[in-house]
UniProtKB/TrEMBL annotation:
Biological-process GO terms, alphabetical: regulation of centriole replication
Record domain CEP76/DRC7 peptidase-like: where: 367-497
Domain CEP76 C2: start-end pairs: 105-262
Keyword Cytoplasm annotated: yes
Name of the protein in its database record: Centrosomal protein of 76 kDa
Main function: Centrosomal protein involved in regulation of centriole duplication. Required to limit centriole duplication to once per cell cycle by preventing centriole reduplication.
PANTHER family: CENTROSOMAL PROTEIN OF 76 KDA
Length: 665
């Protein structure tokens, strides 16, 4: 049987490695010693030869065969192993065995970039931090990478002036490319791939709160002109937002091509390519800026009051770079992680909300529209980040979606999402809550006696709407949302921008300054196990709190279990808008509470998994405190936690406290 050339070379390499191990163990020398010793001790003078069985028995007695077998590693078919594994244990019993890391299968016909992070230095903000003690919880750094639809995350390392990053990432060069997918890409072709390696540094504090430290686009193609196909780079990371010009630290990075390039490029060729790309991008951006200025002048000439409207053509990202707002949106398909637009809205709403930090007072809003990778890795962001992601997901589901820029109550700037139905129905989607509102405009010219629809949405004014291909400025007499007519084909109501102009700077690959969109990652949270852990912690916190008040605590496990359907119904209602299962829950509670007893329940919703924080929030509610601190005869307490996991390890956490007690008048 003949082997393919790549399999033959792989087999040769494995044999070579095993022989090298035997050489390092000096197996041959040890066998010769055993042979000589056996001949001296066991061979009779009249016997002229030693049998193979005698030699093997002697080697086994001295442990040499066992040593060799330990060094041999047999590779089994992963699929066959998975088929023969026992079924997973019950969700409340966790397998504590350490995970076995599977080896990465490298396709010898593909080209890879091996990126190693070999430590950091000059993170001066952490200069005074002491060395963490063994087992002590400390703040950590995590490095997240995205390259050509591939995402990676480093192991968390303790925050320090010189963080000990020691990680390697194998990036496939031709991943998900169109055509030439099975062809070994050469250096000239790789030079034309202008996708950078997007690196995002996240800090996680001791309470689990995340902070965006730096966002950097690594130009990896310098390795194409490096000697031996290896390049070492010192990457200076700059801060974000108001600190985008301040250095936060330096990473030592090593780049290597696999397999090695048969022919490297000259540094003059690579530098010329980079210069041409920068010039091309700068020219496209200059032409779009000229067009945008002309469009804005025409918009102001329609009506002088347009100057006060929120018409946003450019926005700053986390690095302080001005980019057209249309470049922050792109159709995004979630694969099998999300099944419907309303589920996508629920997912976006459970990502944390946090306004961009501002140094100093004044109450001003710091503008910072994050790139999608930075938003997903930090797991929280401002309303603009939520709206951009929701609009991208709805576009991926085939809807005609736009991001709306305007204000809500008290003139606070806000962004939300709008979809246009094929029948003309306009629906507003609030990305921070997942709520949907159907828009029915008020006609100000109607007689006073005509009943007008009462808007339920919180939005007051709207200045512009946009997606990845279109941009419209609101040029109706009033920018109040309640009277707006969303006939986007009527240029007397909505002034459009040129689609070609938008495409020149916002289409994928149009310019090197527009970062590619990363794919969504599946959740790493075990919902059942996490629910159980939070519930156990809450029971301890409640018991301790009641003990401080001089009260005993008796838990009713059956009543706790009966609360589960209510929590599932609450999440279903948040996702679909449909309320179901309430009758069965009420019937079960009535059967569980005896006559003459009182039942009280309090549900609450969180988007974090910190039990102590959740408990402190619950105590601030007088209804919940009344349950937790319940006094009476035959008091029985119950608590149920249900965690619903979503992509990117986002989660919706529902908690319900309940009690039943005998009413004594």
């Amino acid at each position: 049987m003949s082997l393919p050339p790549e399999k033959a070379s792989e087999l040769k390499q494995i044999i070579h490695q095993q022989l090298l191990k035997f050489f390092q163990m000096d197996v041959h020398g040890r066998i010769r010693e055993v042979l000589a010793e056996t001949v001296r001790e066991e061979l009779a003078p009249e016997q002229q030869q030693l049998s193979t069985e005698d030699l093997i028995r002697a080697l086994r007695q001295r442990g040499i065969i066992d040593d060799v077998m330990k060094e041999l590693k047999f590779v089994t078919d992963v699929n066959e192993t998975e088929r023969t594994l026992a079924p997973k244990p019950s969700t409340h019993f966790v397998d504590r065995e350490p995970p076995v890391l599977k080896k990465t299968n490298i396709d010898p016909t593909r080209r890879y970039l091996y990126l190693q992070v070999l430590g950091g230095k000059a993170f001066l903000e952490h200069l005074q931090e002491p060395e963490p003690l063994p087992g002590q919880i400390c703040s950590t750094f995590t490095l997240c990478l995205h390259f050509r639809n591939q995402r990676f995350r480093s192991k968390p390392v303790p925050c320090a002036c010189e963080p000990d990053f020691q990680d390697g990432f194998l990036l496939e060069i031709h991943k998900d490319s169109l055509g030439d997918g099975s062809k070994m890409v050469d250096a000239t072709t790789m030079l034309s791939i202008c996708d950078p390696v997007h690196m995002v540094l996240i800090k996680t504090d001791t309470f689990g709160e995340t902070t965006l430290v730096a966002s950097y686009f690594l130009e990896w193609r310098s390795v194409l002109a490096a000697e031996n196909g290896i390049a070492s780079v010192a990457v200076e990371l700059l801060g974000v937002g108001t600190e985008s010009k301040v250095s936060v630290g330096v990473l030592s990075i090593r780049l290597e091509m696999y397999p090695q390039l048969s022919k490297t490029l000259s540094s003059e060729i690579t530098s010329t390519q980079f210069t041409l790309e920068r010039q091309k991008t700068a020219e496209k951006e200059r032409l779009f800026l000229v067009y945008a200025k002309q469009w804005w002048r025409e918009y102001l000439q329609i009506r002088p009051t347009h100057n006060a409207r929120l018409v946003k053509i450019f926005a700053q990202d986390e690095n302080g770079v001005n980019r057209p707002v249309c470049s922050y949106v792109r159709p995004l398909r979630a694969g099998r992680l999300l099944d419907a637009p309303r589920q996508a809205a629920r997912f976006v709403s459970v990502l944390g909300y946090e306004r961009a930090p501002v140094i100093g007072g004044g109450g001003g809003k710091q503008e910072q529209w994050c790139t999608l990778l930075a938003f997903l890795c930090r797991n929280k962001g401002d309303c603009e980040d939520h709206a951009n992601l929701l609009c991208s997901l709805l576009l991926g589901f085939g809807l005609e979606a736009f991001v709306c820029v305007g204000t809500k109550a008290k003139g606070v700037p806000h962004t939300w999402v709008m979809t246009c139905g094929s029948d003309g129905t306009i629906t507003f989607w609030e990305s921070l809550t997942g709520h949907r509102y159907v828009h029915r405009p008020i006609n100000p010219d109607d007689p006073p006696l005509v009943e007008q629809p009462k808007p339920l949405y919180p939005y007051r004014t709207i200045g512009c709407i946009f997606n990845h291909e279109k941009f419209f400025g609101n040029c109706q007499p009033s920018d109040a949302v309640e009277v707006c007519v969303f006939d986007l084909h009527d240029e007397s109501k909505w002034k459009p921008m040129s689609g070609e102009a938008i495409k020149s700077v916002c289409a994928p690959g149009a310019t090197s300054s527009v970062p590619p969109f990363p794919p969504l990652c599946a959740s790493t949270i075990d919902a059942a196990v996490t629910s159980n852990e939070i519930e156990v912690q809450l029971r301890i916190l409640v018991s301790e709190h009641r003990k401080d008040l001089g009260l005993s605590t008796v838990w009713d496990d059956q009543l706790s279990y009966l609360l589960s359907p209510a929590l599932a119904a609450y999440e279903l209602e948040r996702t679909t808008g449909v309320c179901a299962g309430n009758e069965e829950f009420q019937d079960a509670v009535r059967r569980a509470v005896p006559d003459g007893h009182t039942f009280k329940g309090f549900p609450i919703h969180f988007v974090h998994r910190n039990a102590r924080r959740a408990f402190a929030t619950c105590l601030r509610s007088p209804f919940c405190e009344e349950i937790i601190c319940c006094r009476g005869d035959q008091v029985r307490l119950a608590v149920r936690v249900r965690v619903f996991a979503y992509p990117e390890s986002a989660c919706a956490v529902w908690i319900m406290f309940a009690c039943k007690y005998r009413s004594v008048l």
